[in-house]
Amino acid sequence: MQDGRWRAAVSVGWKDGKRVRKVLTGKTRRDVSERLTVLLRSQQRGLPVALGKQTVGQFLQRWLTECAKPKVRPLTYSSYSWIVNSHLVPCLGRIRLGRLAPEQIQAFLNDRLAANYTPRTVQHILATLRVVLKQAAKWDLVARNAASLVSSPSVKPLEVQPFTPEETEVFLSVIREDRLEGLYALSVAVGLRQGESRGLLWECIDFNKRSLQVRHTLQRVKGKGLVLAEPKTARSRRTLTIPQFAQDALLAHRARQEREKAMAGNRWKETGFVFTTTIGTPLDGPTVSRQFRRLLEKAGFRPMRFHDLRHVCASLLLSQGTHPRLVMEMLGHSTISVTMNTYSHVIPALRNEVADQMDAALAPVATQVATLQPLSRGEVAPN
């Protein structure tokens, strides 16, 4: 075209005896070519070509309703909804879905970083957009996933500094007789996530078999309050053996809860949760984290997150030579690479232990080699 734009036309059928053409116009040849590819794919699959007119915002709302809400956990859906409505729709929503380009997405992400959103938050925004556009590509509404061509901002890995074995012993003595001793002890013993601990039901514990079933996680969902949800992943549904020190803490906690129930009287709310408030209602995450921080401060420990108790569990097991595969299954990680990447700080110590084990295994041979005398010049070794 004379104004520098590109145009393509394709026949989309007949109407009243006349051929109907779809005209595509764009600033670049690539833009027009991609939209033409989507249109032709839609024709081949019998889809109406008018779908190409929808905006990014329209498809985002459709994706939330048709794809995300029926499949993901409530908290995950709440996160998706916040990202879509607070970031993606206001900034990219008016763009035609088929015209969304990588450079537009990159500029949008740079704006988010400039607005002082953390790189981790921007990572989540990009990850959500990639999932959305992946679905659009499956439905042949876009020729490519433009978000997959954009680099994710780098995030400095969180340095894990769990308790040492000596510090863990001190911590277990400090929490003794604390109202949430059982919660803390269980987190150290089997590495439950906080939501898994708070969502634990008495019916999921078998004291005779010293076993515990992780079947739920307790989450706060906007507009719904605290709700029980499915665990984070399929591997998060697991059955664990409870170490004796944690079982003793749980039995003491059960006795304490019975006393609180008697004191509360009619105010007690029977919910079946293992860890509750003094009137039986479920514990909120911020409340547990706040009490944990106060406990550490009072005992003179360095500041830690409640989640770091999970790291304490894994680090202790790995440092004792427990196979990473068993640690992965205990923690409910989706892959063993997640376990090894998260606890890479333990690997140097394990390498030293492996070298020591090799020395021990080959000690007799090493001693025999050390006693051999070198041959003098011209001497022939005996057969």
Give the tally of β-strands.
Answer: 7
Distance between the termini: 93 Å
Number of domain units: 3
Average pLDDT score: 85
Roughly what fraction of the amino acids lie in strands? 5-15%
Q: What is the element string, with H for helices and E for strands?
A: EEHHHHHHHHEEEEEHHHHHHH
Question: What percent of the residues sit in helical stretches (DSSP H or I)?
Answer: 40-55%
**CATH architecture name of the largest domain:** Orthogonal Bundle
Query: Which ranges are low-confidence, i.e. pLDDT below 50, for 5 or more consecutive residues?
Result: none
Could you say which structural class the secondary elements and strand pairing correspond to? mainly alpha
Rough outline: elongated
Radius of gyration: 30 Å
Kindly identify the CATH topology of the largest domain: hpI Integrase, Chain A
How many helix segments?
Answer: 15
What's the CATH superfamily of the largest domain, by name? Intergrase catalytic core
